Amino acid sequence: MKQSHIIAVGKLKDKHLESLETDYLKRIKRPKLIIHEVKANAENRDLEAANILKKIEAISNSPFIVVMTEFGKQMDSPKFSRWFYSKVEEDRDLFFVICGAEGPGKSLLERCQYKLSLSEFTFPHKIARLLLVEQLYRAQTIFEKHPYHN
Length: 150
Description:
Mean pLDDT: 93
Strand content: 15-25%
Radius of gyration: 15 Å
Distance between the termini: 27 Å
Helix content: 40-55%
């Protein structure tokens, strides 16, 4: 794998959540995690999807796109760690996409290779983003047999 990315619709404006996210990002070593923010377009999710895909295409010519959706696959943290690090071994950039409030547009759903859910609960985007970053850090600690997960 080259790198892992989160494409998040909208900006993280809460300083407390931003501080927590920054702390986890500092801890994530392999693979490097980069967060990209794209403009929200709540009234047109297809335009939002096009902007997301345009951003991904500007970054990578071999993306593996994971859309975060309540209808996606759920897994516990150890299983997610195994899944994530199996993807790390592939020579592709991995993109986790957190869409806007209206959900993913059709073109993004057609283009993605995987749909993943954090929970059956519904979360605000800023919380979902922090949860995903934390789970990526947790996946690393499980993979490295670090006691954080215990």
